[in-house]
């Protein structure tokens, strides 16, 4: 088992209308009060050697009939390019701490195989390795985020991997890279120091891992003009103590940026993982597609917990680093349901419904509100695993509802966040012991455009939204809507009921934006501002 059962919460629920239930919500948008920049890296991705994410998802091999470039699926590349994905984390996950990079370079037919012990106990032939991953990043136009093997590797192995990837002169590793067909070094901006060291990454205590992170960080060198942003592997969920220990062990100069001398920081950021998991226990997390209203609302209660957890880690970091120079990274997040019937339990293949899309949209609202500390987030995972953007079925490609949320929110990349405040309590539902706010929203501005993201979590009731737009004259609003008749609606190779369409119910007159959100829907509204 990878994750502690404490992650699961079997709250008994009702889905009664809560005291704040109403079909109307009012809010204020301060368009002239730009806040922290929303890093595009909050829209990052994650590709692990797990199930059909790499093999069949990204990689079909050079002999495939599926259109590809050098073995990499072109339909997947095209779909992800449309999202402007900012970074891709690889090779794991738990797999990263079993991966030995030298097995994945050189002629493919001579690469040694290994057992993927975490994911299905299948034989991994190492056909997809460093060169293939870097070629994928180049095709996607995305930044690589490479996770080193701290759990079962060596410091030397990790140091040599960086040299292999990023060094330009005639060093031993640069020479080996050239022998394997790549002359120029690559750029690698993000470097992970292991993964879940408290669990699959080595079963360590926070103190033991902090020592290792300093050691690995020290030898994770910058070569030439490649500057690594080193990310220490962090907590499960709300384990704030883990974050505190890592902050205490950071090094002499908080947020110094890179290792350039003795005593400089050995890592520049700290990660944590948080999945949206509901269900009785780890072996009964519930179906991705068959769920009732109770289960839907319990999922949303779990999803909205992300805000409290980000704030918890951020508070700990603030105590040590009030200038916010150390980054917080959520490098795994998303829904985790039971696998689809008949599929390999170790492959974590699940369908993706409107419920997943709304889990994503409320996460992004929380990310935007914490953009001062949260610098990166990576959905788990990009293709065919957990809350995927894309599902492949032979040569067919399916865009999931979650994919559309990433697409609709693209305008937030590197935009300045804007304060959007709900008046009063806002609508809610009582879910067991919890009060679930059923309206979620965030806003940003970039290049003279304002973008609002608006979510109505109520499964049954539409919501009239009225927003007082202050501080700027606003142009004509353009709305886009993602919803479906059923909250469990999902896309397959033969039917795509969940699609983005224009949002007609939107107007902006005399500084008041009015939108009607259908039940269980996500919408974006954009408009130009004039002084
Ligand atoms: O994303 C699947 C797994 O979840 C990752 O390998 C691991 O880091 C986490 O437990």
TrEMBL record:
The keyword Hydrolase applies. InterPro entries: Alpha-L-AF_C, ASD1_cat, GH, Glyco_hydro_b. One of its GO terms (biological process) is L-arabinose metabolic process. Its EC number is 3.2.1.55. Residues 1-23 are annotated as: Disordered. Residues 10-21 have a biased composition (Low complexity). It catalyses: Hydrolysis of terminal non-reducing alpha-L-arabinofuranoside residues in alpha-L-arabinosides. Keywords: Carbohydrate metabolism, Glycosidase, Hydrolase. Residues 331-521 form the Alpha-L-arabinofuranosidase C-terminal domain. Belongs to the glycosyl hydrolase 51 family. Homohexamer; trimer of dimers. This is non-reducing end alpha-L-arabinofuranosidase. It comes from Kineococcus rhizosphaerae.
């Amino acid at each position: 088992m990878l994750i502690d059962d404490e992650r699961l919460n079997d709250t008994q629920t009702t889905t009664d209308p809560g005291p704040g239930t109403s079909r109307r919500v009012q809010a204020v948008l301060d368009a002239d009060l730009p806040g922290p920049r929303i890093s595009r890296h909050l829209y990052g991705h994650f590709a692990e050697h797990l199930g059909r994410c790499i093999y069949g998802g990204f990689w079909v091999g050079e002999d495939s009939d599926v259109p590809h470039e050098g073995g990499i699926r072109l339909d997947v590349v095209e779909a992800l390019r449309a999202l402007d994905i900012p970074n891709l984390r690889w090779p794991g996950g738990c797999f990263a701490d079993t991966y030995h990079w030298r097995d994945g370079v050189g002629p493919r037919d001579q690469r040694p195989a290994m057992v993927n012990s975490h994911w299905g106990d299948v034989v991994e032939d190492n056909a997809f390795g460093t060169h293939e991953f870097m070629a994928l990043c180049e095709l996607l136009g995305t930044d690589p985020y490479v996770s080193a093997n701290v759990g079962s590797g060596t410091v030397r192995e990790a140091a040599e991997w960086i040299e292999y990837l990023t060094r330009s002169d005639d060093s031993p590793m640069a020479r080996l890279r050239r022998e394997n067909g790549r002359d120029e070094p690559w750029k690698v901006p993000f470097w992970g120091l292991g993964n879940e060291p408290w669990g699959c990454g080595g079963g360590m205590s926070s103190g033991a891992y902090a020592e290792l992170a300093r050691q690995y960080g020290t030898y994770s060198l910058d070569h030439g003009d490649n500057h690594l942003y080193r990310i220490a592997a962090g907590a499960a969920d709300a384990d704030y103590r883990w974050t505190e220990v890592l902050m205490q062990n950071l090094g002499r100069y908080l947020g110094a940026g890179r290792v350039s001398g003795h005593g400089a920081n050995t890592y520049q950021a700290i990660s944590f993982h948080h999945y949206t998991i509901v269900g009785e226990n780890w072996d009964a997390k519930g179906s991705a597609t068959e769920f009732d209203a109770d289960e839907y609302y319990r999922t949303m209660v779990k999803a909205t917990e992300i805000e409290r957890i980000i704030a918890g880690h951020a508070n700990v970091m603030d105590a040590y680093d009030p200038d916010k120079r150390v980054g917080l990274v959520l490098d795994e997040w998303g829904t985790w349901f039971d696998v689809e019937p008949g599929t390999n339990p170790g492959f974590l293949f699940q369908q993706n419904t409107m419920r997943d899309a709304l889990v994503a949209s409320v996460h992004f609202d929380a990310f935007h509100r914490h953009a001062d500390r949260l610098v990166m987030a990576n959905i788990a995972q990009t293709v065919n695993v957990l809350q995927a953007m894309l599902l492949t079925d032979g040569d067919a490609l399916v865009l999931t509802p979650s994919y559309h949320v990433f697409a609709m929110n693209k305008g937030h990349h590197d935009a300045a966040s804007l304060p959007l405040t709900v008046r009063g309590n806002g609508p809610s539902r009582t879910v067991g012991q919890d009060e679930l706010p059923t309206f979620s929203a965030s806003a940003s501005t970039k290049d003279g455009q304002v973008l609002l993201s608006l979510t109505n979590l109520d499964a049954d009731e539409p919501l009239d939204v009225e927003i007082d737009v202050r501080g700027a004259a606003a142009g004509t609003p353009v709305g886009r809507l993602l919803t479906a008749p059923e909250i469990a609606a999902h896309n397959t190779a033969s039917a795509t009921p969940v699609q983005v369409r224009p949002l007609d119910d939107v107007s902006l007159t005399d500084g008041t934006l009015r939108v009607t959100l259908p039940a269980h829907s996500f919408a974006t509204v954009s408009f130009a501002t004039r002084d």
